[in-house]
Amino acid sequence: MTEASTPAAPKPPALVAEELGGLERLRRRVTQGELGSLPVIAGLILIWAVFQVLNPNFLSPRNLTNLMVQIADMGTIAVGLVLVLLLGEIDLSAGSVSGLGAGVLGVMAVKNHVPAAAAIAMGILTGSLVGFLQGFWFTRFKIPSFVVTLAGLLAWEGALILILGTTGTINLFDPGIDAIAGNFLSTTQGWLLAVVALAIFIGSMFLTRRRRAIAGLEVQPIAGLFLRAGVACALVLVAVFVLNSDRGVPFALLLLLVFVVGFDYLLRRTRWGRHVFAVGGNAEAARRAGISVTAIRLSVFTLSGTMAAIGGIIAASRLLAVNQSSGSGDVLLNAIAAAVIGGTSLFGGRGTVWAALTGALVIGSISNGMDLLALAASIKFMVTGGVLLAAVTVDAVARQGRQSAGRA
Amino acid sequence: MSEEGNSDARRPEGPARTPLLELKGISKRFGAVQAMTNVNLQIHPGEVLALVGDNGAGKSTLVKTIAGINIPDEGEILFEGKPVHFTGPRDPVALGISTVYQDLALCDNLDVVANLYLGREEVGAPVPFISEEDMEKRAREVLRDLNVTTLQSPRLVVASLSGGQRQSVAVARSVMWKAKLVLLDEPTAALGVAQTKQVLELILRLKQQGLAVIVISHNLADVFEVADRIFVLRLGTNAGDFDVRNTSREEVVATITGAEFGKLRETATAEA
Questions:
Q1: Which of A178, A274, A377, A392 is the most buried (most CB within 10 A)?
Q2: Res A396: pLDDT
Q3: Is B152 close to A269, i.e. CB distance below 8 A?
């Protein structure tokens, strides 16, 4: 323990954590497998640079805005997958469930003339129900989650084809549904959002530091806080500026950000979130500590189904249609790849929801860039597969690094 | 060699005090296997009892009985003089009996504070966010009281700790919730010399704080260093209950193996 624990007679000044040199800290993180979001950001910069060289339209405001709309559905599905991966489990049905959620929405809104809001709610609830059912099967019969959800992958795709019936494709013309991926915030709304978000982020960072100082605990060096605040400001303001110079901040991106920030808070600040990490780290230890492992698993699988359905609905809104191949193809693998590339460990217990956003940016950028270059689907599949493999390898190698450094 | 029931009489301050925990005539059978027969055990506050015995002597069965995992077929358990009936592992914990198993049951991916509070996280009101500052403060106090000085920060991830530090964290977690009796299952197995010393010091610290400690161990050197009494199980029953001041390692070994004291060699060859 540091001097922080010894009560000194005069109130000690704010205690500052022992500071390693920046380079030394970086070296230690790399060799010991504590990479965090470093590789994904480096990868993103590289990808953007390559595509910008190959096609000068890549980094144009118009294309970047398109990119943000394109990643919203993948990112939303990936948020649910991050939760499942944190448990050390997998949900292979997420793609099919996203298709089924969109299918229910389409059938209800177009064929049965249900109001848009109600149809959306029904689509989302379908996802929740499916997720709960799979979670129940997994926890009740102790079947590995990948088998239960692999069965789901096929079964829910069948369910989608069943409810679509002979129609095949349902076109969505309801303005309420089309608005999800088709609406953009006005310039003023965009700036307002940026300022409010930054104020909350920076404010809570400094409040936390202050609470720790008052409690006599060691605190982060203030310079580090200013650095983080500066980086956050630069990123958010540049992003809003770029998006505003085209059509504005996409509503779908705002939705994704709300999910990411919301689940990040739930995971880091609530007992439920702590228990998700505990179950993912050591389920037996969690059980002995009195945590209901079954309840945690059920909740996470339910949320994964819910997020998949929401993602599917955003995708349907973007494509203005639901058809028999909604949610199939590369939807599942892209979402898993996004979660893993963002830095969520496949081995459970490590990662953040932000991985869904950063990972979706990487996968989305590759897909978007290859579309700009008019590459064939064959090439796209192979490249995306290669990127997924690379990300998983980084995770596995980092894990080995942690183990040899005695940290896993 | 069997001295069950009279260990109190040998303690200078003994007879007047009620034992913290007393087992009377405990028996347990698993199918055709008689795991424990008529086991009697007493432990007082501030006492360190070492539970020793060969593999299969019934140590684990006895520990699981005290931890509420095994329900005895026969016999009586008294806690602070009152008969208690355990129906599951939560019952002993509610009374203040906590068990640290050999695997420690820590979450490697969480930090020390999170592990100490696992399943008991404190939350604020009205927003039920985890009160990290309060928890960290209390965690520092608990670790300081137990003299766990090698830990740089309670914000370290458990995966990065040494074996002795991990054991310390597991013990700290077991005692920070008003424990009166702590069961430690092989706390020094697989630890180096310096780390073993750390853990033994921790056990003495618990004793100083007035807790009763039951230590299961194979290592008689460790046992003689920290224990007040040595309780030997052999073939599922009491084989001996020694005051550590009035016994020798040879006597304890002989009791564990079932050889009569001084005739170790002959008995061993006869049994083989």
A1: A274
A2: 82
A3: no
H/E run at residue B201: helix B193-208
Please indicate whether, in this complex, the C-beta atoms of B107 and A215 are within 8 angstroms of each other.
Answer: no
C-beta atoms of A278 and B114 within 8 A = yes
Q: What distances in angstroms separate CA B30 from CA B25, B71, B77, B172, B239, one per listed residue?
A: 17, 11, 19, 33, 21
pLDDT range class, residue A7, cuts 50, 70, 90: very low
* pLDDT at residue A408 is higher than 80: no
Residue A194 corresponds to which tokens in the numbers above? Answer: 């940026």
Question: What are the beta bridge partners of residue B77?
Answer: B23, B84
Put simply, the chain A residues between 283 and 302 with a CB less than 8 A from any chain B CB are 284-286, 288-291
The SS3 call for residue A137 is helix
Q: Which residues of A are less than 8 Å from B148 in CB distance?
A: 1
pLDDT digits (tens, 9 = 90+) for B222-235: 999 999 999 999 98
What mean pLDDT do residues A319-341 have? 91
Does this model's pTM top 0.80? My answer is yes
Closest chain A CA to residue B103 = A285
Nearest-Cα distance to chain B for A88, in Å, is 12
Do residue A1 and residue B110 have CB atoms under 8 angstroms apart? no
Cα angle value A78/A332/A112 (rounded, 5°): 95
Mean pLDDT lowest among A103-112, A131-140, A326-335: A326-335
